[in-house]
Amino acid sequence: MIGRISSALMVSLISSAFVAANAADAQLGDPGWQRTTGRYDVSFDERGRSTIVFDFEIQAVDDRGAEAISRQVFPYNSYLNELTATDLVTLKADGRLIAVDERAIRDQPASAEPFSAQFDEERRRTIFYPHVAAGDSIRGRLIYKAKRSDFGGEFADDGGAFERSDRADAGVTVAVGLSRHPE
Questions:
Q1: Is it the case that residue 21 has pLDDT exceeding 50?
Q2: pLDDT for 55-95, tens place per residue?
Q3: H helices of 18-92, where?
Q4: 99, pLDDT greater than 70
């Protein structure tokens, strides 16, 4: 039961990095950036452990947006999940790619309170993208791997129903003017 709740919570936590984006879009002003890609792929192994792959791309429309997107924060729970960040780049408006240096990625506890033992596994991975200017985009891939089974015992004998290629698409955001093609 806890695994099921943690799976739902995990998808919620992953998308929390972009909750502010939706709130900013709903406000009267322009946030200065737009999300052009936001894709989740969720899969389960034979032991019921989930892997969530989150691909994203955000474009800075103006200088205010460039400043806002140059720092991205992704929360996770180190007891429940392992977080890997790959393909982290700034895509310049002229087509050049600038990779994020490993030294520009910080992983730290979510709380600095010494008496917060209950939440000491809560962490934040902060990624600082280099040289972001108006017209540039940032992109990356986050992979959240569950350390424990989300559905303990339910994948033990599935009769071959769950192939390794099965996956669930938890949500797709398509930029205005683009169409989604079937895979």
A1: no
A2: 999 999 999 999 999 999 999 999 999 999 999 999 999 99
A3: 19-26, 63-69
A4: yes
Virtual torsion, Cα 13, 123, 166, 158, nearest 10 deg: -110
Q: Which helix (H) or strand (E) holds 44?
A: strand 33-44
pLDDT interval class at 45 (50, 70, 90): confident
Question: Please, which residues have CB within 8 angstroms of residue 20's CB and are 6 or more apart in sequence?
Answer: none
Q: Which domains does the chain have, with CATH numbers?
A: 2-153 (2.60.40.3140)
What single-letter DSSP state applies at residue 178? -
DSSP states along 75-127: EEETTTEEEEEEEEEEE-TTS-EEEPPGGGEEEEES---TT-GGGTTEEEEEE
Eight-state DSSP code of residue 25: H
Mean per-residue pLDDT of the chain:
78
Q: Which of 89, 66, 68 is nearest to 141 (CA)?
A: 89
Which residues, other chains included, contact 175 with Cβ-Cβ below 8 Å and sequence gap of 6+?
A: 34, 35, 36, 37
Find the mean pLDDT for residues 161-173: 48
